[in-house]
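$ ./design --mode recover --in tokens.txt
reading tokens...
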């Protein structure tokens, strides 16, 4: 089979590497324009990236070194209730048998630490320690969940070199059009200087949406009546931080992300442009930050196409869906789409003894599209939950619930939350792979959105764990700091170790 990937960036090169793993004997070509900039001033991920890199035989330590990367243990949400308080959505392992009780035999330090942090029984160790992130401890525990921050452009460059070394053809050229057969299947890809015969196409064209959107003109399901963010002012700085987490700081008309890298901090203000423009956003930023120098403004639309797979083309990443970056789900969705291909491998081939196997491909695409659509809608609900805050310092926050309707089924989830009855059955069917019950509880506790009179509020740990965490607190002095971890990466003291990493 001749496989063509249109578009580079993180989505394109991850697709190339995974396609090479899945179709070892097929020819894979990636077409990339040199004129399309990579979106992002820093990229944050979920723990699924570690497992996926292992599957691709890529050392995450090597990724850190080549992308100015850092470790991410969660997201710190600051001032989301307008009271200056902080809460954390961290990566941890819960007891599946009882989500409200932490089983010592299944937990790690960070799990216990985060649970007590939520209850404000311990202060957060700002900038200092990365609990159990030392490589030896990761190997010993095998259940530490963590993710990565990295420079998106450097990651793309790293993955491209890796892909080329593994036999993937790389063409730098401008896509112009394609040639379809009488049934709409793509048969040729035309660029300025090339004509390529194709059996299957992966659309990784980002916000250009070249195939699923422009060619097939699939129906777009708009999320902006639920999540109104439309613009982002990017303002990276050279300031560095040893924080092993992403920061999401609430503002008057949206929120600011801070992604700490080795050489800089990626930052951007995500806001609702119905209330303020980019210049006003910058003026508000100057009241909080003293080094605001905007690099560019990005306009985006939250939503998804009805279908990610049409005919012999699958759209991946931003070419088919985008929620918003609040929980770093962009790469997670791409990974989910790619891993799902394993189950539909036999449906990707367009050829059989009789020629084009339309039925086989359409059958697979229908099932694939249903799963991907449900996963995106589940993410939408979880992101929407973050905006159920007590902030009242601007018309944006005061009017949020009036102007933005809850996603379908969200009213039932909110009712269970307020009544202290939230459980796995309350959540969308597909959230087990993305955000489980524990993730919901982190956000609910942080936002304090339970009814005051309700006495049935789930409490995370048992009292005996407080003794244990005090004991474990003593161990932090022997733990490796995040800064030391990065230094060891550069001095080649962190080596690849072939162990399975258990993620959330």
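writing sequence...
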């Amino acid at each position: 089979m001749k496989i063509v990937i249109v578009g580079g960036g993180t989505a394109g090169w991850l697709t190339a590497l995974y396609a090479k793993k899945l179709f070892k004997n097929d020819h894979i070509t990636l077409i990339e324009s040199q004129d399309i900039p990579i979106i992002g001033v820093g990229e944050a991920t979920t723990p699924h990236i570690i497992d996926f890199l292992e599957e691709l035989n890529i050392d995450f330590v090597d990724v850190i070194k080549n992308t100015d990367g850092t470790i991410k243990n969660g997201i710190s949400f600051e001032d989301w209730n307008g009271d200056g308080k902080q809460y954390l959505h961290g990566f941890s392992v819960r007891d599946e048998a009882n989500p409200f009780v932490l089983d010592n035999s299944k937990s790690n330090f960070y799990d216990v630490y985060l649970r007590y942090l939520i209850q404000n029984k311990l202060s957060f160790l700002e900038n200092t320690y990365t609990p159990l992130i030392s490589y030896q401890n990761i190997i010993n525990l095998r259940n530490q969940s963590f993710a990565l921050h990295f420079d998106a452009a450097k990651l793309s460059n790293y993955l491209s070199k890796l892909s080329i070394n593994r036999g993937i053809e790389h063409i730098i050229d401008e896509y112009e059009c394609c040639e379809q057969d009488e049934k709409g299947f793509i048969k040729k890809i035309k660029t300025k200087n090339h004509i390529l015969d194709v059996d299957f196409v992966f659309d990784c064209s980002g916000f250009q949406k070249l195939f699923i959107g422009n060619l097939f003109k699939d129906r777009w399901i708009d999320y902006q009546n639920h999540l109104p963010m439309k613009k982002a002012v990017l303002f990276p700085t050279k300031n560095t931080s040893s924080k092993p987490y992403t920061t999401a700081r609430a503002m008057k008309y949206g929120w600011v992300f801070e992604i700490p890298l080795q050489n800089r901090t990626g930052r951007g203000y995500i806001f609702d442009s119905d209330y303020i423009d980019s210049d006003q956003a910058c003026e508000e930023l100057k009241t909080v930050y003293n080094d605001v120098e905007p690099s560019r403004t990005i306009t985006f639309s939250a939503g998804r196409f009805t279908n990610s797979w049409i005919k012999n083309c699958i759209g991946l990443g931003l070419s088919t869906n985008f929620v918003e970056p609040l929980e770093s789900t962009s790469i997670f969705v791409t990974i989910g789409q790619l891993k799902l291909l394993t189950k539909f491998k036999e449906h990707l081939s367009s050829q059989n003894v009789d020629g084009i196997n339309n039925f086989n491909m359409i059958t697979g695409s229908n099932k694939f599209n249903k799963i991907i659509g449900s996963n995106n809608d589940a993410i939408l609900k979880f992101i929407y939950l973050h905006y159920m805050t007590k902030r009242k310092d601007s018309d944006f926050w005061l009017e949020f619930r009036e102007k933005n309707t809850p996603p379908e089924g969200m009213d039932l989830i909110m009712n269970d939350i307020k009544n202290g009855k939230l459980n796995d059955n309350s959540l969308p069917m597909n959230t087990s792979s993305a955000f489980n019950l524990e993730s919901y509880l982190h956000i609910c506790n942080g936002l304090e959105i339970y009814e005051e009179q309700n006495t049935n509020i789930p409490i995370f740990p048992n009292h005996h764990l407080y003794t244990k965490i005090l004991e474990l607190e003593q161990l932090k002095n022997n733990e490796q700091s995040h800064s030391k971890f990065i230094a060891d990466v550069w001095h080649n003291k962190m080596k690849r170790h072939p162990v399975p990493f258990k993620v959330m």
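exit 0
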